[in-house]
């Protein structure tokens, strides 16, 4: 018996729905087996995840808090992915964005909240854009692989951040923790509705709408969609792909940088080591699962946020080690991403 | 080799396919088709694109498995799970793309994928065997040459040799003459005749009715996945075969009205262009495209035609030379300015270059319009206008689609080409550069496309037509250049009066035609 994959000619909407539903079901089953082997009742564990993520108003708000940076960074990488330019550096771009915002707070503090926040946002946007722009320029000029450069720039950004929070910017009264002094009040994005959700959420909704219009309604979006579908056809139609790479990378990095600023200004209120918790990478998965549709990424980011919150609940409530929670998250992603394969291919069994 | 090891089985055909049915996700490619090949015969397989020829032959070659039906090899029922099984049963296929390893030598390609090859290759033995086969069938080939060094015709010989090396008794040739010069085709037919004399059976897939009539014993026509009939070539006529293919009376003729040559639109002077690998592909070509005229370029693919087209549409930079459009120098301008000047290029690689095939018909229709009004509205795209425009193309060029949001990749070859032609020919362009416009199209789509090109000529476009199909070039061109190794061997002012054989010699790089004083004067006058 042999298995063979054939490309589907078209995948109707019900198929997309069915494969997604089925893969989630399979993921839960596989995860259940895993939990059972850990000596935990799968049903209790799933109930705990659901309850911790959606159980109360507070829980929902915490899920949203986790989803917010994921959603913004996924918008950022989505733009470059549409053009088939693989910006893996959302993480690093968010970090330098946060770094730039913190620098503005440290060196140019002003008392007016709107002025302070605008300055921070501007710095973050330019820093993130610059960081991604480096990779864009290298690609445009010498066709340097952007996957490598953006990934490497992540490490540089990480170390740069550590240098500042361990070194010159460390708060002397932090008892040795690698963090800066708390930001002044003017530099804090206001929280909303008595939760930890901050005003960045308005920015997210706005950005999502802008991105949706940019990609699907404008000449700019049309060009990058054509380039992503067939670079040769793009050239044939007189589009300058190389010029566009730099622009797209800059915008992409700028959005990610803005996400970094939102995190430090809205949530932590200071710059500290490891604040991003690898959001930059998870956002890539969010972008992919939402089929590069901005509006869909809002929902996917929220579900991913739930998975992150649920993972924490498993550690605290069920006494599972962190690794177990991560394995469960990994299993679910594995099945959902794997399910995508079956939307595009059918598997035939050849007897003999 | 002491003759072929064919079993003498009397009247049983070498291969017989009975009641073959094959479906692909809802589409029936073959329905209850029966087909057989006798020893010593050339059996031609005719049909429009999508008629199921390739599917049927891929089933015979073990690439697909039939949903229903049986294959008998010399009377014995067989099941093929892969081409390996088919080859073991003595069935070989030469695809249009030869599936050879370019960097390997001829002899290394012979044993590619053969299981029984020892770990250390018996080079001498293999080369001797190649020499033996090539002598037997009259195919000269140097066994130690690397495949990439060979011409297309030679590569085809290698692919054929490979099948004979593996003792194939039945050979399936998929449109073998599409890539050959007339001389090379002649040679191939010579080889085929020797093969049939040795008792091989040959399946010959073709679009070209002339060849089929002269080379085939029997002809089977497929239409819409069904066997529309099997006839002896000697008992039928071209028109009858064409009718069987399309299912109604097909007109094969075209009318090219005499027209006075108009103003020059696109002019190239001594242009030199590099190919993708940095080797010179166009070597000092000059030409002048005029309104109300079709300028044909004949030549075997890979002699710089694509690079010439790309240079003339601004896609490929010149090393030296000049290009001007409507009198203005353009050779430093961007591809976009060529489009804006009304120079439209229809590439041969329709899906790979002409279309963003994952996107839908509307998106593809505006590919060369999205930056100008009325499709562009400032920074935005007016999708309403775009959809109207797409609808217009689809309607006036007879593209049959269920919906404008169908991804272009799902269109058939003919529909794709109609859409591409529609986009590029709409609104009477100044100059049209069109490459292999009827490649892989069926009879009716071919006729339609040629008709459209002629219509554009009549409405005043200057047209550059690049093709490998000499019949097409002869029928459409007002002037005809023959291109070989990046140069024009000659430009014929009255292509109709020149024997095809002479053009064939020039296509193969043979001597340039001796130029008479009269034709030279004629040329000067035409400038």
Short description:
With 352 residues, chain A is mainly α. Chain A has helices at residues 13-37, 42-54, 57-82, 90-107, 113-142, 146-166, 200-217, 219-229, 231-236, 241-268, 279-289, 294-317, 322-344, and strands at 2-7, 345-350. In chain A, helix 1 crosses helix 2 and helix 12 (294-317) runs antiparallel to helix 13 (322-344).
Protein described:
The complex is a heterodimer of chains A (352) and B (527). Chain A is 72% helix and 3% strand. With 352 residues, chain A is mostly helical. Chain A has a two-stranded antiparallel ribbon. Chain B has 527 residues and is of the alpha/beta class. Chain B folds into 2 domains: 15-246, P-loop containing nucleotide triphosphate hydrolases (Rossmann fold, 3-Layer(aba) Sandwich); 264-342 and 429-526, P-loop containing nucleotide triphosphate hydrolases (Rossmann fold). In chain B, helix 14 (413-425) runs parallel beside helix 15. At the A-B interface, helix 8 and helix 9 of A face helix 10, helix 11 and strand 18 of B.
Keywords:
heterodimer, A: 352 residues, mainly alpha, ABC transporter involved in vitamin B12 uptake, BtuC, 13 helices, B: 527 residues, alpha/beta, Rossmann fold, six-stranded mixed sheet, 18 helices, 33% helix, 25% strand, globular, disordered C terminus
Q: Helical stretch count of chain B?
A: 18
The average pLDDT score of chain A comes to 85
Shape, principal axes of CA atoms of chain A? globular
What is CATH's topology name of chain A? ABC transporter involved in vitamin B12 uptake, BtuC
Q: What is the straight-line distance between the termini of chain A?
A: 5 Å
CATH architecture of chain A: Orthogonal Bundle
CATH class annotation of the largest domain in chain B: Alpha Beta
Give the full name of the CATH homologous superfamily of the largest domain in chain B: P-loop containing nucleotide triphosphate hydrolases
Strand order of the largest sheet of chain B: 6-7-8-3-9-10
Low-confidence stretches of chain A: none
User: What portion of the residues of chain A fall into strands of 2 or more residues?
Assistant: under 5%
> Looking at the structure, what is the overall shape of chain B?
globular
């Amino acid at each position: 018996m042999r298995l063979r994959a054939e490309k589907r000619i078209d995948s109707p909407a019900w198929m997309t729905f069915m494969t997604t539903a089925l893969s989630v079901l399979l993921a839960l089953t596989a995860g259940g087996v895993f939990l059972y082997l850990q000596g935990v009742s799968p049903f209790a564990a799933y109930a705990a995840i659901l309850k911790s993520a959606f159980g109360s108003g507070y829980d929902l708000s915490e899920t949203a808090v986790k989803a917010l940076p994921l959603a913004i960074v996924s918008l950022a990488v989505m733009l470059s992915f549409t053009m088939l330019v693989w910006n893996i550096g959302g993480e690093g771009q968010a970090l330098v964005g946060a770094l730039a915002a913190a620098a503005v707070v440290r060196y140019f503090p002003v008392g007016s909240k709107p002025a302070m926040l605008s300055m921070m946002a501007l710095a973050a946007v330019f820093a993130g854009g610059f960081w991604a722009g480096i990779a864009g320029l290298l690609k445009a000029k010498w066709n340097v692989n952007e996957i490598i450069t953006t990934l490497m720039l992540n490490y540089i950004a990480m170390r740069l951040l550590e240098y500042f929070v361990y070194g010159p910017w460390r708060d002397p009264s932090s008892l040795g923790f690698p963090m800066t002094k708390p930001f002044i009040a003017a530099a804090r994005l206001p929280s909303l509705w008595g939760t930890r959700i901050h005003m960045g959420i308005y920015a997210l909704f706005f950005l999502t709408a802008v991105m949706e219009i940019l990609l699907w309604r404008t000449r700019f979006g049309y060009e990058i969609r054509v380039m992503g579908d067939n670079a040769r056809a793009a050239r044939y139609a007189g589009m300058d792909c190389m010029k566009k790479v730099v622009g797209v990378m800059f915008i992409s990095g700028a959005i990610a940088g803005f996400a970094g600023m939102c995190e430090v200004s809205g949530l932590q209120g200071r710059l500290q080591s490891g604040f991003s918790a690898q959001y930059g990478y998870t956002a890539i998965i969010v972008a992919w699962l939402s089929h590069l549709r901005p509006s869909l990424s809002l929902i996917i980011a929220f579900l991913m946020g739930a998975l992150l919150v649920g993972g924490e609940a498993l550690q605290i409530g069920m006494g599972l080690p962190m690794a177990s929670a991560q394995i469960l998250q990994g299993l679910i992603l594995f099945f959902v991403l794997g399910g995508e394969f079956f939307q595009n291919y059918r598997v035939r069994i050849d007897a003999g | 080799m002491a003759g072929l090891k064919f079993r003498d089985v009397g009247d049983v055909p070498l291969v017989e396919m009975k009641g073959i049915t094959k479906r692909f996700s809802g589409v029936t490619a073959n329905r209850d088709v029966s087909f057989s090949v006798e020893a010593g015969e050339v059996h031609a397989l005719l049909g429009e694109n999508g008629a199921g020829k390739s599917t049927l032959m891929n089933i015979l070659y073990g690439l697909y498995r039939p949903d229903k039906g049986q294959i008998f090899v010399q009377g014995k029922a067989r099941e093929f799970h892969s081409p390996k099984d088919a080859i073991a049963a003595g069935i070989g296929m030469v695809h249009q793309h030869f599936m050879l390893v370019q960097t390997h030598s001829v002899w290394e390609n012979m044993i590619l994928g053969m299981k029984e090859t020892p770990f250390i290759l018996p080079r001498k033995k293999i080369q001797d065997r190649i020499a033996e086969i090539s002598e037997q069938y009259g195919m000269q080939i140097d066994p130690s040459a690397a495949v990439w060094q060979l011409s297309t015709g030679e590569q085809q010989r290698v692919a054929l040799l490979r099948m004979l090396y593996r003792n194939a008794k039945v050979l399936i040739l998929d449109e073998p003459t599409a890539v050959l010069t007339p001389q090379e085709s002649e040679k191939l037919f010579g080889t085929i005749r020797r093969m049939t004399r040795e008792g091989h059976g040959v399946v010959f897939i073709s679009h070209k009715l002339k060849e089929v009539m002269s080379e085939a014993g029997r002809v089977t026509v497929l239409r819409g996945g069904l066997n529309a009939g099997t006839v002896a070539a000697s008992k039928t006529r071209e028109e009858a075969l064409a009718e069987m293919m399309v299912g109604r009376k097909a007109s094969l003729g075209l009318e090219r009205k005499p027209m006075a040559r108009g103003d020059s639109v696109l002019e190239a002077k001594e242009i030199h262009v590099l190919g993708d690998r940095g080797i010179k592909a166009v070597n000092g070509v000059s030409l002048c495209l005029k309104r109300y005229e079709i300028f044909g370029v004949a030549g075997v693919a890979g002699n710089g035609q694509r690079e010439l087209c790309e240079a003339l549409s601004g896609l490929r930079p010149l090393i030296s030379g000049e290009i001007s459009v409507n009198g203005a120098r353009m050779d430093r301008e961007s591809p976009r300015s060529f489009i804006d000047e009304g120079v439209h290029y229809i590439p041969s690689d329709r899906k790979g270059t002409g279309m963003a095939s994952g996107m839908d018909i509307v998106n593809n229709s505006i590919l060369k319009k999205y930056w100008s009004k009325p499709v562009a509205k400032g920074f935005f795209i007016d999708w309403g206008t775009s959809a109207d425009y797409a609808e217009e193309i689809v309607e006036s060029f007879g593209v049959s689609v269920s919906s404008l949001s169908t991804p272009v990749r799902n269109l058939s070859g003919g529909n794709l080409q109609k859409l591409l032609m529609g986009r590029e020919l709409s609104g009477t362009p100044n100059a049209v550069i069109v490459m292999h416009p009827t490649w892989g199209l069926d009879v009716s789509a071919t006729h339609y496309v040629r008709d459209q090109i002629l219509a554009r000529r009549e409405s005043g476009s200057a047209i550059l037509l690049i093709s490998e199909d000499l019949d097409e070039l002869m029928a459409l061109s007002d002037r005809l250049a023959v291109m070989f190794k990046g140069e024009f061997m000659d430009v014929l002012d009255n292509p109709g009066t020149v024997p095809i054989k002479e053009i064939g010699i020039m296509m193969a790089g043979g001597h340039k035609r001796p130029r008479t004083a009269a034709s030279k004067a004629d040329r000067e006058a035409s400038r």
